[in-house]
Amino acid sequence: MTNRITAIAFAAVSFASVALAATSSQAAKCGGDFQTFIAAMSQEAAAAGVSQGVISQAFAGVTQDPAVLSFDRRQRGTFNKSFEQYVSTRVGQGRISMGLQMMQRHASLLSRIEQRFGVPPEIVVAIWGLESDFGKGDIGKMPVIRTLTTMAHDCRRTELFQGELIAALKILQRGDLPQRDLIGAYAGELGQTQFLPSSYIKYGVDFDGNGHVDLRHSVPDVLASTANLLKTAGFKGGQPYGEGTANFEAMREWNRATIYRKTIGYFADRLAAGR
Questions:
Q1: Which residues are catalytic?
Q2: Please, where in the chain does CATH 1.10.530.10 lie?
Q3: Where is the signal peptide (predicted)?
Q4: I need a labelling partner for 207 at 20 to 30 A (CA). Which of 29, 115, 141, 231 fits?
Q5: Can you give the pLDDT of all 275 residues of the chain as single tens digits?
């Protein structure tokens, strides 16, 4: 499971989650009756331009998910390890070897992405590997609307997750994913590099040219969107990305945890060395 969940829990706003979708100054009141909260969020969504048909379909039968809140409350201290301890569990020889295979398999695609966004292939592939084992790992099985409604109703970070819920509804409105594919992890992260919905809306790129941003199934969309996020955050190609550099700081838009960004850099270095 991705570490982007824990980044939200520890740093309040994670990697691609810093672009909040909340635009209303009058957020729906958290706590209290759940159905009343959904009704208020339906009004918020309509004011944000989401159609009544999408709203009705998305919220039909939605109930709270106690497992989501339980998981969220357990996510304390995951990064309480040294870098050496952490990286040893995330970047082994098997993952490096697979990363090199992915770089070879998608060499042409990665070259086009680098030309457009200025982000080197090893950084993009390192993130892809860490987040979902190159799309082969667990990218979540939780219904995103239920997850985000549960988190938004909880009063600890209601504004953050109300914004993410509106963004998820906009993904449905745009037709990027059908609701059956709007499934993710325990904080609503979606796709092979685990974008929160607000980042999906802000940074998602239709790189395969089919008219939709599909971060679950389309490798071109996944990798280009990942590079676009970094470029937008100020990542500069041809520059170092180690701790203390401008590129390392730009990667805060991906994940605010220093240890995680160091792990991206370490993995990227191993991939670059093996090319």
A1: 131
A2: 90-138+203-274
A3: 1-21
A4: 141
A5: 444 444 444 333 343 433 443 344 356 899 999 999 999 999 999 999 999 999 999 999 999 999 999 998 887 555 678 999 999 999 999 999 999 999 999 999 999 999 999 999 999 999 999 999 999 998 999 999 999 999 999 999 999 999 999 999 999 999 999 999 999 999 999 999 999 999 999 999 999 999 999 999 999 999 999 999 999 999 999 999 999 999 999 999 999 999 999 999 999 999 999 87
